[in-house]
Design a protein that fits this description.
The chain has 222 residues and is an alpha+beta fold. The chain has 9 helices and 9 strands.
Length: 222
């Protein structure tokens, strides 16, 4: 099972590295947007790819303290996970699965950074406990997601449907932009480069703990 997983992972990596980002931008259709912008929908997102430099950022933690990620000055590799929010049941299931391997990932040397569209107060409501080696971070403005090429506008019909079910995204984020991230995972080496990336516009499809562990093992830095 692990061998097959590693083979799939290597194929994914090779395809990502073989793709020239400039060529992708030049051949993009009108539905695509340049990296750093906001896509009109999840399918049009243009995430950063393996071999590209991870974007540095400054944001707030679940305790509303300042947090800085500087890809030019990394002592440890990092796993950056973008999820929609604590209100999302698929995100909760993903966090629960990653909880099974979080200690092992930290023991391997990784920092675990989890970003969502929730404001800091909502991050606290969805806290996983004091013993969790995960840093919960707020990207309520979606500027970080934009810099990683995974921010997209939620359709008006979807926003209305959420409101009818009692979910107000503006209340959750504190900003009424109607933007969410495509759920994504980036493995970043100490050189600041993205080593592995998983991004799926179908929010119901998330990276498995087994695949993430396989990627972490491949790019583990001593």
């Amino acid at each position: 099972m692990r061998i097959g997983c590693l083979i799939c992972l290597l194929l994914t990596f090779l395809v990502g590295c073989a793709t020239d980002p400039k060529a992708v931008d030049q051949s993009a259709t009108t539905a695509m947007v340049s990296r750093g912008g906001i896509a009109p929908d999840a399918e049009s997102a243009n995430p950063l790819m393996p071999g590209m430099t991870a974007q540095s950022f400054e944001t707030r933690t679940s305790t509303d303290e300042s947090f800085v990620f500087d890809s030019s000055q990394m002592d440890r590799p990092a796993i950056i996970v973008f999820y929609r929010g604590g209100w999302c049941p698929y995100c909760s299931m993903q966090l629960s699965e990653l909880r099974k391997i979080d200690v092992e990932l930290v023991d391997m040397g990784y920092d675990l950074l989890f970003l969502s569209a929730d404001r800091p107060a909502k991050l606290r409501e969805g806290s996983l406990g004091d013993d969790v080696p995960i840093t919960l971070l707020s990207d309520s403005t979606m500027q970080i997601a934009q810099s990683y090429g995974i921010a997209f506008h939620v359709a008006e019909s979807t926003l209305n449907r959420y409101l009818e079910s009692g979910l107000d995204l503006a209340q959750e984020s504190g900003v009424g932009h109607g933007v969410l991230p495509v759920p994504s995972v980036f493995v970043v080496g100490t050189d600041g480069q993205i080593k592995f990336q998983y991004s799926n516009p179908d929010y119901r499809q998330r990276i498995s703990g087994e695949l993430l562990m396989a990627a972490a093992e491949i790019y583990q830095e001593f």
